[in-house]
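Input record (one chain):
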Amino acid sequence: MTKPPRPPRSKPLLRDDGGPLQSRPIRKRNPAQPALPFDPMPPRVEPALALLKQKPPPGDDWGWEIKWDGYRLAVHVEPTGVRILTRGGYDWADRFPGIEAAARSLGPASMILDGEGVVLDEQGRSDFNGLQNSLGAVGRRSGNLTAGNAIFMAFDLLYLDGHDLRGLEYRDRRHLLEETLAGFGGAIRLSEEIDADPVAILDHACRLDLEGIVGKNRNSKYQSGRTGDWVKLKCAQSEPFLIVGYEPSTGAYGGFGSLLLAAYQGDDLRYVGSVGTGFKERPSVALRAMMDKLPWRRKAPPVAYEGNRRVVWVQPTLIAEIEFRQWTPDMQLRHAAYKGLRDRQDNADVFRLDDDEGR
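The corresponding structure, as predicted from the sequence alone:
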């Protein structure tokens, strides 16, 4: 005998009039309502750094461009405004008003651009001294701490409209960067890739008195620190060091004959030699005045020192940009020349022997 069908366990939803309940029609999205991002914008990204090499790596998977001589910056274009972060994490948007204004005009897209803030000379080369005159000792004495003529050379794109791009290969990030800056001029510019043999590019860069070139592995994802995915080849090395003392001199600009320098090694400072050339009169006078106003001056050196010079030791606070040719076997600077004074606030740039010793 066939069983009768089982009654339904539940009754269909009914309206008061007995008809079935219908879904409400979906309303169209209000364009004024903000869209939720796919990925939250990171508040800060530790930059990828280039590993110093004596010759280019083999293979064709490398993109090459000019090495710019200025301040490493990350431009954050956000719904609430623009931030221009230094390598140390300080917001210097007020110091780069031209770059800040240009970044605003890139909106309403949200993005993070990685690049270098520079001042160009008449030949179109980056001029660190020109940038330092605005942001360093001379600018401070005049009360002007802005570089209105600075431009931002963008060489990577880390975030775009809700998408964190750090997981993409460099070739894809570069393509998106070129699309984002296509036709855009002014204080934000694309750092152009040069399609040529890197040895020939470096030779040409050195003949033009440029600092060197940078190569990036097109297959690499964006990783903070020196991983080897980015490399740099230099015509002459240039790095920031802490000033730990000076050698007085009555016959030299500013009243000092040389500066004694130190780099970080772990959490400690290590003496790396001195610099006695490259000084100009006005910046030297300003530098001596700054050193004499430092709150800590005493006979004991802040670093291990075995020399017999007559030295005035100072608090290791001021950061000097030094150009040099090479290191001695005992890690002292050879053929060093003073280029300018970096801002004390951005001490993340100070050279670390841990990163480069032995290379």
